[in-house]
Amino acid sequence: MHSRILGTGSHLPDKVLTNADLEKIVDTSDQWIRERTGIEERRIVADGESTVDLAESAARNALGAADIEPGDIDLIIVATTTPDRVFPSTACLLQQRLDIHGCPAFDVQAVCTGFIYATSVADSMIRSGAARTALVVGAECMSRIVDWSDRGTCVLFGDGAGAVVLGASDEPGLLSTRLHADGAYEKLLYVPYGVSSRPEKVRDGEAYLQMRGNEVFRVAVNTLGRIVDETLDDAGLHKSDIDWLIPHQANIRIINATARKLGMSLDRVVVTVDKHGNTSAASVPMALDAAVRDGRIQRGELLLMEAFGGGFTWGSVLARY
Ligand code: ACO
Ligand 1 pocket check: which of 34, 211, 217 to mutate, most ligand atoms within 8 Å of Cβ? Predict the structure, then answer.
């Protein structure tokens, strides 16, 4: 038994925040942001809008594309760093929205690699026979954990959600999934406080995402190069076999470095960071959906998805679409 991608979907909040808008909030410039990151604009949730709202729209789009009824879903996994609540999980909130009852539903927390982790878990459960049709979602409201007075981080992130429906198949769809983490890098990228470690009084800015950007950058470039080789070795394939690279959208310079390492021309790399910014766990499924919907990705093509994020976590999914 294998799993394959039956359909994809995504959803972006309406509000666009451009680099020009950010120039009014912090000491930055459109030129700096474009040159260092490739980002032109990002979407931001409205007051009252939350991660499960984005997840629900993306999930419904993916179900429609797969021509699957919600009642046929027997596993829901949501990858998110920004859940609506401590509990129930965002996956359970989504399950209720979709009027699905009884199947397992849980969240996965691997920051920007969350969707890769969630897809790998769903693939394992389908291959073991524990599920037949899985809804896998990456959904984030990163704007809620960003310090809007810190120009080093607030220009980088955005909100959104992407989803895939994975179904059991006799033909191999997902060919290899690789997952890694190394908690030794905690202090390069983190949010200092959560639920159990929150002091009575948190100083300004301390409740928000902290990042040592250029150190993260160096490790990300090296690590993503290695995961590409590892994934191809695992599947017995070559760099030249890959039709599309669908990378985590953190920074155009990291994406370009990974594409160079693969010897891929940039027109075979799906780039959404210019319009989405870094949407953490939502970035890979949103990029996948964008390229499926505009007709670039065709059935039968070989896709390499990869991501790197807080933890550090990193991983890849190699799939025949
Ligand atoms: N506007 C203008 N200037 C800025 C801004 C800004 N928004 N931000 C920082 N600067 C300044 C700095 O203060 C510094 O000034 P100085 O030289 O006077 O001290 C200068 O620009 C250079 O700063 P660096 O941090 O060295 O810039 P760098 O080229 O490394 O780019 C960036 C920063 C874009 C953050 C880059 O390091 C990066 O993309 N890092 C990786 C991010 C990433 O991949 N994260 C992983 C996933 S995120 C997750 O898991 C949640």
Answer: 217
Ligand 1 center to 155 CA (angstroms): 9
Q: Rounded distance, CA 251 to CA 286, Å?
A: 15
Helices (H), 2-42: 19-23, 30-37
| Residue whose C-alpha is closest to residue 287's, from 134, 121, 115 | 115
Question: Which tokens go with 243?
Answer: 């039709």
Per-residue model confidence (pLDDT) at position 76: 99
Model pLDDT for residues 23-43, shown as the tens digit of each residue: 999 999 999 999 999 999 999
How, if at all, do strands 189-190 and 210-211 pair? antiparallel
Whether 213 lines ligand 1, by a CB cut-off of 6 Å, is: yes
Handedness of CA 23, 27, 29, 32 (dihedral sign): negative
Check residues 196 and 284 and name the one with the higher pLDDT: 284
For a ligand 1 pocket test, name from 39, 82, 190, 214 the mutation site with the most ligand atoms within 8 angstroms of its C-beta: 214
pLDDT at 82: 97
Q: Per DSSP, what are the bridge partners of residue 166?
A: 5, 134
CB of residue 155 inside a 6 A radius of ligand 1: yes
Residue 216 CB–ligand 1 contact under 6 Å: yes
The pLDDT tens digits of the residues spanning 84-112 come to 999 999 999 999 999 999 999 999 999 99
Residue 120: count of CB within 10 angstroms of its CB: 23
Q: Residue 160: left if φ>0, alpha if ψ -120 to 50, beta else—which one? A: left
Would you say the CB of residue 32 lies under 6 angstroms from ligand 1? yes
Integer angstrom CA distances of residue 15 from 38, 41, 42, 155, 160: 19, 10, 8, 15, 11
